[in-house]
Amino acid sequence: MNNYTAATVEGFVTHEPIMRKTKNGKVLCLFSVAINHYSAPDTPPRVSYLDVETWERFADVCAKHVSKGKRVMVMGSLRQDRWEGKDGKMQSKIIMVGREIRFLDSGRVEKETEMKASDRL
Fold first, then answer.
1. Is residue 116, in this structure, part of any structural domain at all?
2. If both were cysteines, with which of 2, 43, 46, 59 could 54 make a disulfide (CB 3.0 to 4.6 Å apart)?
């Protein structure tokens, strides 16, 4: 039985999207989102960075419309990648698999622009 994960994050894109193709020829788009965590009015926020990946036709759409500095809301699921580092120690990272994205402008949806993976298939 599969478990269900759902996540929504809102933040600023930290770098231009990177397009790749897997060995199997699937298209992948990678970008990161900076998420600010405010704790007190006069203190700077703590920032978390989350890597986002999108696949196939949705990856093509994200590569065209996502850019550094844009404020976005990404909806999708979380996945943990694990690998053995060069030092022999196990490493891990939580990645968001984006399925829907909204482009935000000062808290409002920019021109009601919303894209979903299912809309592009």
1. yes
2. 59
